[in-house]
Design goal:
- InterPro entries: DUF2961 (IPR021345).
- This is DUF2961 domain-containing protein.
- By secondary structure, the protein is mostly beta strands.
- It has two domains: about 180 residues, Jelly Rolls (Sandwich), CATH 2.60.120; about 160 residues, Protein of unknown function DUF2961 (Jelly Rolls, Sandwich).
- Helix content is about 5%, strand content about 40%.
- The chain contains three helices and 25 strands.
- Strands 3, 5, 6, 11, 13, 15, 18, 19, 20, 21 and 25 form an eleven-stranded mixed sheet that branches. Strands 1, 2, 4, 7, 8, 9, 10 and 12 form an eight-stranded antiparallel sheet that branches. Strands 14-22-16-17 form a four-stranded antiparallel sheet, with no helix packed on it.
């Protein structure tokens, strides 16, 4: 993040520095991002509203995505980098739409995540997020600031897994055309779900990564199936040949996400928070009728402390609560929760193919 040369990224320290990079933007008002071609549509989702005003007056602000089809949001000839993505669509579609990114004509995507989870909203209910990498603003404005460099080509798609049409998908992809230095890695993101997590096993956040790179973030949509505290489990990073024992081992779920003592503050309540590098922005409480489970959304960005690996990486997290005490001693309870994770990392290409993404019913929030 916040690179300081070549026009790939800016920081406050070099905001006044000139660059030969070229800024471009793709949206339904300019599908190709071509210079001087924005707002020229004569047909689109806003054509009826603009019929008295004509061309140039918000004729094509959004798209519809047919059922069981894939829409290409961007095709860009490089070199360059995606710098910001904004989009919005109704929450009912957030687990039905799969967001994918392909770099340099690769066959297998480097990013493959349900669209809500990519933007830290995995429960199909709006939740504001205020962080450096992802911002979600009222009322459901998804923003990504992950830098995504490419050298020859970038392709971004959204697949609609549902047989029903998605109407009113709004988006804008802001990018730069500039040289990409040799030491710049490619952005990746992968989604996995355990529902339920088998008893006395761990949830795998990421596995099978091959190559050099650095891990930069975790988002978890965690649904609890038991009473009591659920976050005693440790996160573990196995890297560069680690087998049975990891190089990095956390001390508890809330500790990894930047909190402490069960996130409980004030007493008797979860302390919802959203900060630049970590947060518990979403707590969904049971309502005493049909909403029977507690559900949580939390993120941790390794922007200042990337987890660097040279040849391989595996990341897991335990789900632990508490059993009843015996002989005055407390006991851990391995939980069987609904855990959906999104891992974010940079690495060299080629990357190992991802596990097959589950189907519509397996992705659904239930």
């Amino acid at each position: 993040m916040n690179l300081t040369f070549n026009g790939l990224g800016m920081s406050l320290g070099n905001l006044s520095r000139l660059s030969n990079a070229e800024t471009r933007s793709i949206s339904p008002e300019n599908f190709t991002g071509e210079k001087g071609k924005g707002g020229m549509a004569t047909e689109g989702t806003g054509a009826v509203a603009a019929r008295e005003l004509g061309q140039g007056w918000k004729v094509s602000p959004s798209i519809h995505i047919a059922g069981e089809s894939t829409a290409t949001l961007a095709e860009i000839q490089g070199p360059g980098a995606i710098q910001q993505i904004w989009l919005t669509v109704h929450p009912e579609h957030w687990r039905r739409l799969v967001f994918r990114c392909y770099w340099d004509e690769e066959e297998n995507p480097s990013v493959e995540v349900p669209i809500g989870d990519f933007f830290c909203n995995g429960w199909c209910e709006r939740c504001n997020v205020t962080s450096l990498a992802v911002c979600v603003n009222p009322a459901g404005g998804f923003n990504s600031y992950w830098e995504m460099p490419f050298r020859r080509h970038a392709r971004i798609t959204v697949e609609n897994l549902s047989p029903e049409e998605v109407r009113g998908f709004y988006y804008q992809i802001n990018y730069t055309l500039t040289e990409v230095p040799e030491d710049r890695a490619y952005f990746h993101a992968q989604w996995r779900r355990s529902n339920p997590l088998p008893y006395q096993t761990v949830h795998t956040i990421l596995d099978g990564v091959r190559g050099q790179g650095h891990y930069v973030g975790t988002y978890l949509a965690w649904g609890v199936h038991n009473n009591g505290w659920w976050g005693e489990g440790e996160i573990k990073f196995y890297m560069d040949g680690d087998t049975d024992w990891p190089t990095i081992c956390g001390t508890g779920t809330e500790d990894y996400f930047g909190g402490a003592w069960n996130f409980e503050h004030p007493r008797g309540e979860y302390g919802v928070f959203s900060s630049p590098y970590s947060g518990l922005p979403q707590v969904i409480k049971p309502d005493g009728l049909y909403r029977s489970q507690q559900r949580f959304g939390m993120y941790r960005w390794h922007i200042m402390d990337p987890v660097r690996f040279k040849q391989d990486l595996r990341v897991t997290i335990q789900a632990l609560g508490w059993r009843s005490a015996l002989g005055g001693q407390r006991r851990y309870l391995p939980l069987q929760d609904d855990i959906a994770s999104t891992a974010f990392w940079y690495q060299t290409e080629p990357h190992a193919p991802f596990p097959p993404l589950p189907g519509l019913n397996e992705l659904e929030v239930i």
